[in-house]
Amino acid sequence: MSSEATIDDGPARRELVDRLASDGFVLLHDLCGGEMVKSMLGVSRRRARAVREALGDREIGIGSAAGYVEIVQRSPGRWDVPITPQQFGFVERDMPWWWLIAAVLGEDAEHSFSGVVSSEPGSPAQYWHTDSPHEAPEHRTAHAINVLVALHDVPMAMGPTECARGSHFLTNHLGNPSLVLDELIYQHAGTSPSSLVNGAQCRVPESVARPMAAGTCLVFDDRLLHRGLANRSNTTRHVAYFSYRRKGYCVNTHFESQRSVFAEAT
Fold first, then answer.
1. Does the pTM exceed 0.90?
2. What pLDDT, in 10s, does the model give residues 24-81?
3. Using an 8 Å Cβ cutoff, are 83 and 116 in contact?
4. How far apart, in whole angstroms, are the C-alpha atoms of residue 22 and residue 128?
5. Which DSSP letter does residue 48 get?
């Protein structure tokens, strides 16, 4: 089975868990039904509109520390607006991907963040990055998992997420002193799949990006090297995300700002 798969039975699920561990990501086709996707897209648009109206013409920098509690510009033209599962209208453990989260992180896994990332037309590709650091010099099982949900068809021109297969084994700055943590997490121009091997006797991780039909989910390890590709279309791309952590894990590099866009609105 490749990293693109459809869930059908117990053995298939077991293989998906194993593939997530080995590749660092799996693509689950048609996981969310049409009504669920339509609802998520509606909630996302309404919330993003309200936050952007409160932001007005104020400019914010790139990255979570430069943003607000309610909105972050992850890269030029790529806006992240948090939305809770409750605001989406969902019961967390009823989500169609919860079985995979529980299999990897445990039944007591905790919700970290959720929301929508909107990539405007003309927004460039992100720099390669990870979302959180390793915990020890030796490789451990995942401490956090992300689920990206396509809220409409996302062809290649709209810039789906690109993943470096197996790179979660190579992004460990604690085991490789040539890696710089801030350059892995905070989007540095010099970070790429090839920079992870840096002359070592191992292959450069394969870069993989696929178009996503509405309702398709990309599930990936928080330590995986990845990036959103450029939106070369004339339409804004909306992708919902749901992030989970192992119980007790608390490192936060996602939303670091404490200021509210609504408190500063005039």
1. yes
2. 999 999 899 999 999 999 999 999 999 999 999 988 988 888 889 999 999 999 999 9
3. yes
4. 19
5. H
- Do residues 264 and 60 lie in contact, with contact meaning Cβ atoms separated by under 8 Å? no
The rounded distance, in Å, linking the Cα atoms of 162 and 134 is 20
Q: Identify which of 142, 164, 106 has the alpha carbon closest to the alpha carbon of residue 21.
A: 142
Are the C-beta atoms of 122 and 241 separated by less than 8 Å?
no
For 153-203, what is each residue's pLDDT tens digit?
999 999 999 999 999 999 999 999 899 999 999 889 999 999 999 766 789
CA distance 20 to 108: 19
Is the domain 4-245 a CATH 2.60.120.620 member?
yes
What tokens does 176 get?
Answer: 């490789």
Question: In angstroms, rounded to a whole number, what is the distance separating the alpha carbons of residues 242 and 240?
Answer: 7
DSSP string, 222-233: TTS-EEEPP--S
Whether 6 has a pLDDT exceeding 60, the answer reads: no
- The string of pLDDT tens digits covering residues 94-133 is 999 999 999 999 999 999 999 999 999 999 999 999 999 9
Distance between CA atoms of residues 213 and 230, nearest Å: 18
Six-digit token pair at 221?
């390890």
Tokens of residue 80, six digits:
């992240």
Q: How many CB atoms lie within 10 A of CB 37?
A: 20
DSSP single-letter state for residue 4 = E
Q: Where are the domains of the chain?
A: 4-245
Phi-psi region of 123 (alpha: psi -120 to 50; beta: other; left: phi over 0): beta
User: From the CB of residue 16, how many other CB atoms can be counted at a distance below 10 Å?
Assistant: 22
